[in-house]
Amino acid sequence: MTREATPLDVIEGRARWCVVEGDAMTVARSMPDASVDAVVMDPPYGVKIAEWDADIPPQAWLDECLRVSRGPVLWFGAAPKALEFGRYSPRPDRMLVWAPSFALSCSAAHGLMFRWHPIAAWRPKAIRGAIHCDVLTHKTDGRNTWNHPCTKPVSLMRDIVEAFVPDGGSVADFTAGSGTTGVGALLRGRRAILVECDPTHAATCIERMAATEPGEGS
C-alpha cells in the first residue's frame, strides 16, 4: 500500500511513508498548514538540477517549509554559503555543522574541497538528546552506494530525525535524493513524505523505503 500512498495518507496516519516523483515546492504547496512535525532536507547546491542551485534556495522555499511544518525546519547547506543563511527572514535560530570524520565531503567551490556542511535550523527545539552538540561527526562510508552525489550516512539522518521529530511523528523531505531521511525516519518509528524530481532517484527512494519498512534496511 505504501508504494501508492500519498502525502495525505502519511499525514493522516494511513501509511508510514510515501515517495512523490515531482517538483519540491509544487508538492509542498499542496499540503495543509502545520501538517508534518518537521521538514528536513538538503536543497541542491551546484549539482545543476535546478536553475538556482549555485545559490541558496529562494525565500519562497523557506516560507513553504515553515508553513507546512508545525515544528523544526532543518536545511543542509553548502560550506561556502553558510553566512548567506542570514539573508532569510526569519534568520535561522541555530546552526549545526556536519563535519564527517575521516572523509571528504562532496562540497566544492573554487577548486577546494570542504569537510563540513552547515545545517540551518528554524524552531529547532530538540525532542530527545540524540544531538548532543552543534558539530556532528558521523562518518561517511566512502562509497556512492545509491548513485547519488549527496547521499548522507543513515546514522546521521537517523539521529537528526530522532532528535527533532517526536515519537510516531512525521517528517517531510522535499529534495529527497536517495531517500536517507526517510530511511532514518522508518528506523526510528517516524513517518516520512519524500519528494524527488529525478525519476531514477525517486525509484531509489521507493526501493530503500520498501526494504527498510520491516526495520532491517539501510
Question: Which features would summarize this protein structure in a list?
Answer:
eight-stranded mixed sheet, two-stranded antiparallel sheet, 218 residues, 10 strands, alpha/beta, single chain
Task: Give a short summary of the structure.
The protein is of the alpha/beta class and about 220 residues long.
What this model shows, in words?
The chain is of the alpha/beta class. The longest helix has 14 residues, at 199-212. The chain is globular, with a radius of gyration of 16 Å. The protein has six helices and ten strands, in the order αβαβαββββββαβαβα.
**CA-based gyration radius:** 16 Å
Strand order of the largest sheet: 1-10-9-2-3-7-4-8
**Biggest sheet, in brief?**
8 strands, mixed
Helix/strand order? HEHEHEEEEEEHEHEH
Structural class: alpha/beta
Instruction: Report the average pLDDT across residues.
Output: 83
DSSP strand tally: 10
Shape: globular
Q: What percentage of residues falls in helices of 4 or more residues?
A: 10-25%
Helix tally equals 6
Distance between the termini: 21 Å
Strand content: 15-25%
| Low-confidence blocks of residues | 103-113
